[in-house]
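thread from #wetlab-drylab

HS: before we spend reagent money on co-crystallization trials with T68, can we at least see a predicted complex? here's what I'd submit
DV: go for it
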Amino acid sequence: AIEASIPQPLRETWRKLAATEFKGKEEFQREVVRHVETTLARSMYNCDDLAAYSGTALAVRDKLVVSWNKTQQHQTLQDQKRIYYLSLEFLMGRTLDNSLLNTGIKDTAREGVGELGFRIEDVIDKEHDAALGNGGLGRLAACFLDSLATLNYPAWGYGLRYRYGIFKQEIVDGYQVEVPDYWLDFNPWEFPRHDVCVDIMFYGYVTKVSDNDGKISHLWEGGEIVQAIAYDVPIPGYETSTTNNLRLWSSKPSSGEFDFQKFNSGDYEGSIREQQKAETISAVLYPNDNISAGKELRLKQQYFWVAASLHDIVRRFKKSHRPWKEFPDQVAIQLNDTHPTLAIVELQRIFIDIEGLTWDQSWDIVTRTFGYTNHTVLPEALEKWSVPLFQSLLPRHLQIIYEINLYFLQGVEKKFPKDRDMLQRVSIIEESQPQVIRMAYLAIIGSHKVNGVAELHSDLIKATIFKDFIAVFGPDKFTNVTNGITPRRWLHQANPKLSDLIASKLGGYDFLKDLNLLKGLEQWVDDKEFRKEWMEIKLAAKIRLAKYIRDTTQIAVNPHSLFDIQVKRIHEYKRQQMNIFGVIYRYLRLKQMKPEELKKQVPRASIFGGKAAPGYWMAKTIIRLITAVGEVVNTDKDIGDLLKVVFIEDYNVSKAEIIIPASDISEHISTAGTEASGTSNMKFVLNGGLIIGTCDGANIEITREIGEDNIFLLGHLAEDVEELRHQHRFGKVEMDPKLRLVCDAIEAGQFGDPNIYNGLISALTTGCDYYLVSDDFSSYLATQDLVDTTFKDKEDWATKSIMSVANMGFFSADRAINEYADTIWNVEPTPQKK
Ligand code: T68
């Protein structure tokens, strides 16, 4: 508040004292020790790695916060358009290492904690991952925050502060077991803002009232109220003073702590029931990726988060005293999938019911404000809410949706008179039993731009699920922004040796801010010394992963074997089953070979990782098959190093940072047309790994950038899929004979009780093989053979690796963010002078 600000003449003193940087190593150390001694009340006699982490994090945080304060003040003064990125998931991973690198004090910290008796790597390793997301969608949001800050865009993220992030995965007797992820016992990176709280209402009823002029307005009242409390997280950019804000909302009961009346009458359980109910809203992240759950609590989460965020955004706009019609010049809101689509309805409600705008004035502002990003074409992932559920939870919002739909359909009717079919197809309300609200349609209608996340995906949504909307709105509303990844975390932080080598050849680290500079590596591709160092760095990363695998699974993997990695959420469409079937085929073949033949084989380690949604039985069965194959293969004396099968437990962001630099080949083998983009494909290639993949998602653009010779493509094309599925449904497809052999081996009990795998096998047969494993299997095996042959030629492999990295510039999240800024948000960067 202005009245609390320090008088002008005193501000110089204040400024001098509010430092954003350490003056040197000594100051850094002093601050670490001060925090260990005074904030944690520990001493040198009981300072373990965890205490050293805490002290270091707190010291770093102190500087970060000052930059953050300054950035927020600067952005407020600049008074420019801000970007608000609404995402139910932010898969941030760890923060300390990233903060040290982004603020340029990693070396100071290494030396500083070194002299205090600690290794910086051990200190960093004590941090708990912030795992507020499922997979690609959540990690994309985190990469985008990094790029927005690095490029000096005034941007805020808005999300939920889940008490429990994505569950921890344990493998017990070969099966996935879920363990809750309570991550908040020490989190130095968040700041509660108890003064920033918003009342959010659910349920209740709507009454119509008319004033003296007969103007009708709506009153929504009588519902339950829950309070949203803001928790802020600073997001530092790389080599810039810009530090943006991520605001996460936490729920708590609105009235008092608990019910004293109940407490005093001895009803202790009853006295805290309301409190618990309120706190349930932000308690846990829904652990599904690419599937919509349709549960009331999920809808509550969505409205709670959206309403709190919009209240905040509107309040900030109001402070500028601008007319409402300028709202879209100050505010760009990006919807990360349909999860925040209610924001469209909520903003319309605020304008009409609270601020007194007309429907048309309001709708014009709303549609100029929002952009919607679609991340999937899978029908089971498209969100639909039952009308009765919605009616009870958000009665006023349902009325507004009906009205949006009415005006929309009137427009469609005008454009396509007499096309009743069309009206039914594009209606926000699906006439099912019960009726449901199609959130994607609402998002399209309420936004000015809709984008997919890779070229093929953006073309597919226009040709399939959103086809009618092209006819209605014209093609210009639909666009593509291919995903990207932040090279700061996914190269510099995860693979510092490779980053240093690249910097030594390119004359510095500018490539971390302009990834196209990697092109300069092409000049070095024939340099013997460089190539040697390049491959030594890869080997070192493999040795590190092999050690990790040995420590955690007791499996001994030879670092010189070909590391074949597939790490991502377990999903039928991603086809980990095709991978493990391929491993079984390889095993059966090895078992048939004579010793002289065996000698010619390339040793391979097949490494898997990823979580299955707790209720997704088929995905859990796939995990069980992988672990079962490992149990057989890894202990088979005939096989030795020629094949190892590893399942790495609890795949997450910090493990990805160890795993990704260590791949020779990684697998991105979704059924063509199902993986919207994929982003780990980009991470693996940026770290000098080659990929085997289908013509799907961003694989296609990666191929275009790095060249066909540097990628192993397999399988049918998206355009073939419909016809193939048709043939399966009419029983016209014989199973691939090699796949038949694999199924026979499983059914014969070679990998334990075959009944466990009934579902998996029948999906291929009676289930009509929806993901076309049989159709792509022979191509997959042939391509894997080509991988083996290529791997034998170490020189050729090194060339492919270097040339690929040199051409990955396009996949920087910075490029993606600049495209969003230009084509969707219409915003400019706001750099600060030092
Ligand atoms: C992923 N989607 C896409 N969804 O599958 C991937 N879904 O191709 C793409 O690269 C990535 O988004 C980024 O665009 C997801 O990760 C989810 O996690 C999800 C979560 C909740 C509900 C539905």
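DV: The mean pLDDT is 96.
HS: ok that's useful, forwarding to the group
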